[in-house]
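Box S2. Input/output pair 1.
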Amino acid sequence: MAHHSVVWRTYDFRPPRWLPRQRLNSQTLVLVLLSGGWLLLYAWLGAQLWHGGVLAAGRLELMLTAACIVLGIPLALGWWGVVRRWRMRLRPAVWPAMTVPQLLELTPSEFEEYVAQRIFARQGYAVINTPDVQDGGVDIIVTDVHGRQAVVQCKRYRGTVGEATIRDLYGAMMHFEAAMAYLVTTGNISDAARRWAQGKPIGLIDGSRLEELSRAEPALRAGSTT
């Protein structure tokens, strides 16, 4: 019964979604261009109505006016989201993005703190670093806005993480009755480990993927207070 409840909850737990860093720049440029066109059209329509009066406006002018009003709503929502993401980007970060060689210079505790803050907390998740001793193979507990949890194990490795580590992590996930588990490492993850994790609520983040996520922009979530 416990196994079934854990699997069921994985459908509601949303893993971190990430956007390429340059996407925010392109989205901002598109919004600027669209907003400029919208303002020009709105100004032209306003001038037409001012000189001719609303009663003298033709069908085309009235249709364009209605279209301007309707299109203004998604533009406003788009700017709301972009401004929130710019605020998040410009906010001083506890941990700047780091490369794998830089991460290998950290202590194990510092690496766990980096993963907790740089990868998960930036997504709006609440994070708790577990004690370094007797943590049951779990280094971080991640909680979403609905109270669902995931467990994270961090491996500051130069080598390759094998299948046995993933099996142990899965057992820890079941013990904590978490919705999902993550393995985050500076090293590589073996093909056998990846095959074993297939079909299970386990996210695998190797060194190259960790660098990508560290540089990426976190996608905003519904219910996030960020």
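Box S3. Input/output pair 2.
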Amino acid sequence: MDPLRLEFTVACPPERAFALWAEQTSRWWPHGHSMSGEPGLSVIFEPGGRIFERTLEGVEHDWGEVLTWEPPHRLIYLWHLRFDRSDATEVEVTFAPHAGGTAVTIEHRGWERLGAKAEERRERNRRGWGGVVPRFRIATLIRGELVIEAWTGEPGPVAPLHVHHEDDEAWLVLEGELVVRVDDDYMRAGPGDAVRVPAGTPHAYSIAEPARYLIAMTPRIRELIARLHEPGETDWRAYASELLV
């Protein structure tokens, strides 16, 4: 049975991409894609050792074992999240310099060892990668503390022209289309496209077609959004931001 193979690029050097994947996994990994499903869990890759989650209460669940640890270029591990180790498959992730960023290749193999369970397990993991990879991609665009949320919406304006003076923000479209204004430029972003707005850059965005997308932001921006949905006036300056219209 053929391996699952995914290829994509990220706008950061291999050193940062490898570190984010293997050493800072907790920053972007979806907590629902785990054993406990608990928010705030840690995901830990031990070089030459275990891959596991640790909940806030200290409960640990094994996911796999690291076989090859070659930063910043290659990582190979056994993978058995939610299954016994005897049903482990093998994942290889490589990070290669590409056009000022990094080409990431994932090969998930070893399905044949699962016998009659192979087809169902392979399809299950194909869907799983579809939820994991976009979060990794958008996480490479934001430094520091990070909040990633999945949003949906119908056509129309979402955010008026504003600026975050100290915080970056990014979007990655899963379905539909967004229109993002960055300074005086307008960018149309469709499925698979990502847009990053650096701190200090005026921006706004709207939905052109019914959309499902990821938004990555700092905790301070998330607090501002929550405040905007509460009654009363919002002091944007308290969140190092400014409304420009």
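Caption for Box S3: The CA atoms of residues 3 and 109 lie 4 Å apart. The first helix runs from residue 14 to 22.
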